[in-house]
Amino acid sequence: MAEEVLASSTSARLDQYVLLSKSAKGAACVQLIQDVLAAPGVYVFSELLETPSVLELATNPAHEPYVSLLKLFAYGTYQDYKSNSANLPTLNEAQLKKLKHLSLVTLSGQNRTLGYDALLQYLDIPNVRELEDLVIDAIYQDLIRGKLDQKKHCLEVEYAMGRDLRPEEETRLLAVLGTWSRTSENMLQTIETNINNISQWTAHEAQEKDEHEKQLELMKKEVKKDGLDRHRPNMGGDGPSDFGDENGRRRLNKGRAMFPSRR
What we know:
By secondary structure, the chain is mainly alpha-helical. The chain has helices spanning 2-21, 27-38, 46-49, 52-57, 64-75, 78-83, 93-110, 116-123, 128-140, 167-231, 246-258; strands at residues 113-115, 144-149, 154-160. The radius of gyration is 45 Å and the shape is elongated. Pfam families: CSN7_HB_subdom, PCI.
């Protein structure tokens, strides 16, 4: 969320320079570039690079170094400037500080733990106090988030803002996103297939369970009916008499004992 707010804020601040570029030609456009590179809160530049005035400026050998400088602020770092400073305009204090801020953003995106010694050397800063001031200022502007560990002499990075993409990086990113999209689509299809299989299996199991319960209920009724038939008294003459079973014989003998026969 914070990254979206920052991107929106710095883009809005760039808008005024994009509008001014429509009427700025030649030396006026050069001055516009100088101003935007020093302007507070402006850290993205690709939209300005795409304006007709800047594109036209790039065709003039006298003005082309300023377009190269603008590209360096969009994509590069302080070390890129240092290695090619002979072919680029000199930076003022505000521009130099901004470029070091942007370099810190790039380094923070590459490594979540940045040692003081490496930062001092990369950014050409003479002492730790100035380095910590630069980092604190970057954190204050929400370019990065993290904490300075003075005991371990390092910066622990939690977040770094996104920078402009080089044209070739845009192509690569689009290819990566295309691959991710296709992979995601295949995964969704696989998940959908699995869900359908599970649904079919669940329906089949429910049907078998229902049939089993019906069979079980039918068996219970048959067992109950059979039990009733077994225990129902036989009142007809065709079946076995009461005297035909063990209990009947006992009652007959008992009756004979109570009423002995007379001789």
